Amino acid sequence: MRKESIYIIVLIQIIMTVLLTYDFFSNLFAHSVIPKILVLLIMLILVSVSIFYSRLKINDSKETLVWQLTSTCYLLLLIVIFTMFGGVSKVGISLGSPILWMILFISLIEIYQQRKKLKSASTPINN
Q1: Where are the domains of the chain?
Q2: How far is Cα 78 from Cα 122, in angstroms, rounded to an integer?
Q3: What is the DSSP secondary-structure string of 19-88?
Q4: Which of 17, 31, 88, 121 sits between 20 and 30 A of 115, alpha carbons compared?
Q5: Which of 67, 16, 11, 21 is nearest to 42 (CA)?
Q6: How is 1-31 classified by DSSP, letter by letter?
Q7: Per-residue pLDDT tens for 89-119?
Q8: pTM of the model
């Protein structure tokens, strides 16, 4: 994986962590008021950019698979940890949200398809 790709991936993850922290623990940021819709919009844009970036800039299917898997696991783990620490999302991100589970399900299907595609590309054809 190129250094540029790693920097962008880490930057996106840091920004997502800060936004989720702000969303779950907005009382810690009492001096700054950011509208809920803006936080949600920025999160959606970042997720979209990260998905498209990984598909357009990373030519290796294995790198794309690793990126999708780590990003999904990291964000889910972050939501679980923030919930365990008593955080409550202001925009509705929670473990009880059906939308979160639908997005997670779609992401897992995409990861499974990438893995299947990677396996089929690496399996030699016997004639």
Answers
A1: 3-120
A2: 33
A3: HHHHHHTGGGGTT----HHHHHHHHHHHHHHHHHHHHHH---HHHHHHHHHHHHHHHHHHHHHHHHTT--
A4: 17
A5: 16
A6: --HHHHHHHHHHHHHHHHHHHHHHTGGGGTT
A7: 888 888 898 988 998 998 899 888 888 888 8
A8: 0.71
